[in-house]
Amino acid sequence: MNNKNEYVSQQIIEDACEWAIMHGVAFRQADNTARHCPFSLAPTTMEREVYQHLLTVTPLIAKLISGVSEDHDFLQASLSDMAKADPFFGSLMMLHQQAHGDKNTRNGEHQAPARQPLLLMRTDFMDDREQGAKVIEFNGIAAGMGPFGQRATQLHQYMSEQWGSVYQQWLEDPLSKQADNVGLEQLALGITASAQAIKTQYAEAGKPTFLMVVQKNEDNVYDQHLLEVELQKQGVRTVRRTFEQLSKQLSTGEEQRLLLDGVGGIDVVYLRAGYQYSDYYAPELNEAECCYTLSQIRVFIEKHNVAVNATISQQLATSKSMQMMLTMMDAKEYLRWGLTLDEANLVKSVLAEMKPVSADVIEWFSTSANKDQWVLKNQGEGGGHCIFGDDIAEKLAELKPEEYDAWALMQRLYPHERDVPTVAVRDSQQTLVSDLVSEIGLFTAHYQGQPVTELNGYAGYLIRSKPASENEGGIHSGQGILDSLTLID
Prior knowledge:
Layout: H1 10-22, E1 26-28, E2 34-36, E3 39-40, E4 44-47, H2 48-69, H3 72-78, H4 80-85, H5 87-100, E5 116-128, E6 132-139, H6 146-162, H7 164-170, E7 177-178, H8 183-199, E8 209-213, H9 221-233, E9 237-241, H10 243-249, E10 250-252, E11 258-260, E12 264-265, E13 268-271, H11 292-302, E14 307-309, H12 312-317, H13 320-328, H14 341-348, E15 354-356, H15 359-367, E16 374-377, E17 386-388, H16 390-398, E18 408-411, E19 422-426, E20 429-433, E21 436-447, E22 450-451, E23 458-467, E24 481-483, E25 485-488
Parallel strand pairs: 4-25, 5-14, 8-9, 8-13, 13-14
Antiparallel strand pairs: 1-2, 3-19, 5-6, 5-21, 7-25, 10-11, 11-12, 15-18, 16-17, 16-18, 19-20, 21-22, 21-23, 23-24
Helix pairs in contact: 2-14, 5-11, 6-7, 8-9, 10-11
């Protein structure tokens, strides 16, 4: 990145930053001020054919994950080794077992918990130069930033209308057309549909109620509030609580109704927390077993008739280990979860090769693998959980055999670099980036396994771009910038 130069009038940069703040594209600071999210001045491009393929295949991935997540015995059997290697997922597996109860003595099956699964998922892709578009990861819990994705599209539309000549100067292809992005409305539509489905089962007056479970002192609140505002427009009441607050405020009503003190019946629970130990940690509880009390809130919620995202099952089904297993399976095996063979083959077409970590694989990697073709991942969510290049061999050598199952090797993706340099804006400062690459996350919404958007389950996209030289591309925790998408024929 070059710095200190003014590639665009600073007045235009400030105008764009003020637009971003005014429209909620921001992070909250510790002193309660707001800082705009980093963004690109003009969108990236993708071939329309590639984009259409992703629009077709992503709801099928969600359909597959919906089926896998409700297959209790399969999850328990297939993830047991990973659960022993990763303490956090080990605790999730215990919660999962607890939520599903003991086996029914008559038919040998586990009793499904009362909650109704609402899968709000983001599937992240990179368009590899040689392999084409491939999945990086599934995000089934705290899969946020759909609102920011739509706002980035709107920001670029604003730049096009307000500062047309500058926008055109940085546009990759002047003939490209903006890809529609209605993620905010479609995600809210899916949530509203599930909220109303629960609400109608109870003879209660008033609006359906949506509960967002959030982290304490969260800084990524504006993305969350944008979704809440859209839900309020669609006639849904919204409330926010931490796990700690819920530990004292939840109770059970008639017919397995989930009740929140001072609010009443809850129709949808949406977890923007719960993907790491710290979300369940309350030091004042002074627990013998870390995080037990707050993690039990999830089991309590799932024993009620309420739409939930993410269920414990969904979190397990979108883990890196499950991604690896699905990648290594034959397409025919997907048929057990309701896909046709054609649908299964479509899903397989976008899954990048993955390998489990074992003594043999470590030996192969250290002696004959091309180290730049692989990335080593653990089960963590968000940024900072990937290891690249020569660091992989070093990490593999450190691992104890009992830790192997918490890790996986995945084919490294090398997306196309943008054809023209880009102006990135961070903290109101402009920087020229000449090697920008992009990752596209497609949102889907399914309730009880069925699509609940006007677009067959699809619910908008999020583009995050970063310099090719940077490994961490998160907006929140890496060198990523918000971006949008234009299509070329």
